[in-house]
Specification:
The complex is a heterodimer of chains A (about 260) and B (about 290). Chain A is α/β, with parallel strands linked by helices and about 260 residues long. Chain A contains 11 helices and 11 strands. In chain A, helix 3 (about 95-100) crosses helix 5 (about 120-140), helix 5 crosses helix 6 (about 155-165) and helix 10 packs across helix 11. The two termini of chain A are about 30 Å apart. Chain B is mainly α and about 290 residues long. The radius of gyration of chain B is 19 Å and the shape is globular. The relative contact order of chain B is 0.18. Classes of the chains: A alpha/beta (about 260), B mainly alpha (about 290).
Chain lengths: ~260, ~290
């Protein structure tokens, strides 16, 4: 297992956002977490990336206990993410945003930086090449010098993915990557996520678009009121009566049956 | 190589003003470093005072040569920056600003009440050892250094933190560490400028490093801008020259500073020199 949690819990005053979650994410492939609004999906992501401290429980990554590690150290270990409400560094260019994502992989000293020693210049050149390659992968290489806030919505989502991808993370967390995208953009995004997974990066995504999730995922975990109620293949999730009827709702269940002809 | 007579006259007549331009430029840079990393400190004047007092004492009581006094005067500001920074930087928002205002006031009453540092009379007769070339040499080095560091992973990290500290930490940036680094750098720059100022004017007093100068230093950076290190220096020069142009109205100086801050926020949100420096040291395809 690449990532496991055991008894992971986050309590807020009067509310248990994540409640004793035992998650196990295998190395490789595309994994999804679904659940209605308020089920605790984003809190779970914040716990995994260290932006929120757990009230209880353990998080292991690559066999090591990372529960107490601060967010920046987890990024250094290879956990990268995007945000549900896009959080680009406004004012910085597209390329500079991606270069910032490469921060944990850069090590030139302050002295080498100020004196512009060959080591610094070589590292910086390589960084720019890697950032350009990440932009190429997500398809916005032509926008490298644009201010990031000028990008169209879908391109901002792509930029966030490039910024997270550029340091070649072992685990990439995508928080509702398809939100606000039109059907054509969603199809292109699914293609991009497949290409990312094909490079060996394990993908964990939170998403409401069921067609997107079911068509893409190797495994799906279902959260409801902070509890993990089911984990299995998309097919198993679809045919699990408890999930489909009681949790996804009858209307969506009917829509899924219509979409997939079951 | 002799100077033309008129130039010699100008330098002699305006020496204090010219030196102030350099010293205030360093102060503006010390403010810039903190603002560029997304923090608000009002302790620049306090750090300057620590540099001025410790530098003057090293010269007058310990009799050290100036080339040792100058780096020595950074020690106290750095110690206090760490003492304030370590506990407050984990917090966000205005905590650092409040703690640094407190530092200035505490130090002022220490200067006032400790006879060893001159009490209310301050320290008089400090040897005038700060030369024009030292002041502007340090200003040039600091500006160039900050420019070069700004165009690297350090500059990118600091701008990213300023825009969105949480996203920056998720990108692997140790936000608390960079905040502390910025505060310590800023204390060094303010300490140097204080030491230079003390060895330029030959007198320092306890009331020179309180809240008022702290706000003036903040206005240097706000007026000039924080998109590049030249901007705060330009702001400092503008606000240093302005009162000289209105000598007949000296009392209006502070009120004018306030008005300029308001106008700058309203009409020049990016400052006098609003351009934003690039954050990569090489271009694409280079």
């Amino acid at each position: 297992m690449l990532l496991t949690t055991s008894g992971l819990t986050r309590r807020y005053a009067g509310l248990v956002a994540v409640d004793g979650v035992d998650l196990a994410i295998a190395q490789g492939g595309i994994h999804s977490v679904i659940g209605p609004n308020g089920a605790g999906k984003t809190t779970l992501f914040n716990l995994l990336t260290g932006l929120v401290e757990p009230s209880d429980g353990i998080i292991s990554f690559g066999g090591a206990d990372i529960t107490a590690l601060p967010a920046h150290r987890r990024a250094g270990l290879g956990i990268a993410r995007t945000f549900q409400n896009i959080r680009l560094f406004r004012g910085m260019s597209v390329l500079e945003n991606v270069l910032t994502g490469l921060h944990p992989r850069l090590s030139a000293s302050m002295l080498s930086t100020v004196l512009r020693l060959p080591g610094f210049r070589a590292e910086e050149r390589a960084a720019v090449e890697r950032a350009a390659a990440a932009l190429e992968l997500v398809g916005i290489a032509h926008l490298a010098d644009a201010p990031s806030e000028d990008l169209a919505y879908g391109d901002q989502r792509r930029l966030e993915i490039a910024r997270a991808l550029v340091c070649q993370p072992r685990l990439l967390l995508l928080d509702e990557p398809a939100a606000g995208m039109n059907p054509a953009e969603t199809v292109a995004l699914a293609e991009l996520v497949r290409r990312i997974a094909a490079t060996g990066t394990t993908v964990l995504l939170v998403e409401h678009d069921m067609g997107f999730v079911m068509g893409l995922s190797d495994s799906v975990s279902v959260l409801n009121f902070g509890r993990l109620i089911f984990t299995g293949s998309p097919r198993a999730v679809r045919s699990e009566p408890a999930v489909v009827e009681a949790y996804l709702g009858a209307r969506l269940a009917a829509k899924l049956r219509a979409t997939h002809g079951e | 190589m002799s100077m033309p007579v008129w130039l010699d006259d100008v330098l002699w007549t305006y020496q204090t003003l010219i030196h102030d331009l350099g010293i205030n430029g360093l102060l503006a840079l010390s403010m810039y470093v903190v603002l560029a990393a997304g923090q608000l400190s009002l302790g620049q004047a306090a750090f300057m005072g620590l540099g001025a007092y410790s530098g003057a004492l090293l010269t007058m009581k310990a009799g050290l040569p100036f080339w040792l006094v100058l780096p020595g005067s950074c020690v106290a500001p750095v110690v206090f920056a760490l003492a304030i920074g370590v506990p407050t930087l984990r917090l966000s928002g205005v905590y650092l600003a409040i703690a640094t205002i407190g530092l200035g006031e505490v130090l002022r009453s220490v200067y006032l009440n400790v006879d060893y540092v001159g009490g209310a009379l301050g320290l008089n007769g400090i040897p005038e050892r700060a030369e024009t070339w030292m002041i502007f040499g340090l200003l040039g080095l600091a500006t160039a250094g900050l420019f070069l560091v700004g165009r690297s992973r350090f500059g990118r990290a600091m701008e990213a933190m300023r825009e969105d500290a949480m996203a920056a930490s998720a990108m692997g940036i140790n936000v608390a560490r960079y905040h502390l680094m910025a505060l310590v750098t800023s204390a060094v720059l303010a300490g140097l400028s204080g030491c230079l100022a003390a060895h330029e004017s030959s007198f320092i007093g306890p009331n020179e490093y309180g809240f008022e100068p702290a706000v003036t230093i903040l206005s240097f950076a706000l007026l000039g801008g924080i998109g590049n290190p030249f901007a705060p220096v330009a702001g400092a020069w503008f606000l240093t020259l302005l009162p000289e142009l209105m000598r007949d109205l000296p009392d209006i100086r502070l009120a004018l500073n306030g008005v300029i801050i308001v106008l700058a926020v309203l009409f020049l949100p990016r400052g006098l020199l609003g351009w934003r420096m690039k954050r990569a040291a090489v271009g694409r395809g280079a």
